[in-house]
Automatic annotation (TrEMBL):
Domain EAL, chain residue ranges per copy: 24-273
Full-sequence portion shown in this chain: 584 to 868 of 868
Protein name listed in UniProt: EAL domain-containing protein
Protein's organism: Sinorhizobium garamanticum
């Protein structure tokens, strides 16, 4: 009996695996089509400089406008794109799109995320150089965001790649700082221009807790190392005020804008008048 029940369970398990595999295959097929059918879009989120209260940069974030699923988040297809290698083509497409788009926002830098898979691709340097040449974007206006995971497996070749990218004149940001292995040695050994403090820390802050202490320390660390600090995931006026007070250089988050389509972003940029912080009330508290 037990054996029979076991077999039945196994069959259910097998059927479920099969379903998941089918669903994955379907998604993979759709994703290949997406690239060909131009269903991918790039949305843009502003980065605000805390000294000048002006928008100084924009992060390019890919989305997939699926015919039946609606707007699919990168979290739901980037992993598959990475497993299948499709990320290399998608990444290049995003890079070119974002660089071209940035030409119409001449006062801004544009940040583009690089997958570790792209990073391991031997053609990366060539690709970035070609995109810069094709689009005519000034290299200093392009910022490439990488996560710590690219540094872990092969640090010496990672260093070569980063140096080659720096030689092109582009800037390098460490994204999601604090979520990976966060070895401080990485900040020392690699040529980062910017540290982006992961939004999990920003979301947890309330002025006196551990997350606030960590955020404060990373800002100080960035200052000492002469790197720009950016806080991601800023959703409230209190967080913006705290970060201003602590000397963070830039902030990014839903408090100002969600990632939006290029046309909308142009309007957002035209209407931007800065924002208020409430420093006096914080000082009093
Ligand atoms: P990321 O590079 O860390 O991008 C920031 C993510 O935080 C974006 O999610 C953005 O929408 C979200 N975010 C910004 N402000 C807030 C906020 O105030 N609150 C909250 N809760 N979230 C906020 P998104 O667009 O879903 O992208 C997720 C991740 O997907 C990105 O994280 C990045 O790792 C990856 N990704 C997006 N576009 C690309 C791409 O073109 N290439 C590659 N390789 N990865 C990409
Ligand atoms: Mg990013
Ligand atoms: Mg990030
Ligand atoms: Mg992230």
């Amino acid at each position: 009996r037990a054996k029979q029940a076991g077999r039945a369970t196994y069959r259910i398990f097998e059927a479920k695996m099969d379903q998941e595999l089918q669903a994955r295959k379907a998604l993979e097929y759709d994703l290949r089509q997406a690239v060909l059918k131009h269903e991918l879009e790039v949305h843009y989120q502003p980065l605000i400089d805390l000294d000048s209260k002006s928008i100084v940069a924009v992060e390019a974030l890919v989305r997939w406008r699926h015919p039946s699923r609606g707007l699919v988040s990168p979290m739901d297809f980037i992993p598959l794109a990475e497993e299948t290698g499709l990320i290399v083509g998608i990444g290049e497409w995003v890079l070119e799109k974002a660089c071209t788009q940035a030409l119409s926002w001449p006062q801004l830098r544009v940040a583009v995320n690089l997958s570790p898979i792209q990073f391991r691709n031997r053609d990366l340097i060539e690709t970035v150089r070609d995109v810069l040449t094709r689009t005519g974007l000034e290299p200093a206006r392009l910022e490439l965001e990488i996560t710590e995971s690219v540094l872990i497996n092969d640090a010496s070749s990672a260093l070569d790649i980063l140096n080659a990218l720096k030689d092109l004149g582009v800037r390098i940001a460490m994204d999601d700082f604090g979520t990976g292995y966060s070895s401080l040695g990485y900040l020392n050994s690699f040529p980062f221009d910017k540290i982006k403090i992961d939004r999990s820390f920003i979301g947890d802050m309330n002025g006196k807790d551990k997350s606030s202490a960590i955020v404060r320390s990373v800002i100080t660390l960035g200052q000492s190392l002469n790197m720009t600090t950016t806080a991601e995931g800023v959703e409230t006026a209190e967080q913006a005020t705290f970060l201003t007070q602590e000397g963070c250089n830039q902030i990014q988050g839903y408090y100002f804008s969600r990632p939006i389509a290029a046309d909308e972003f142009t309007i957002f940029l035209e209407n931007w008048t800065g924002f208020e912080t409430n420093l006096s009330s914080v000082a009093a508290a």
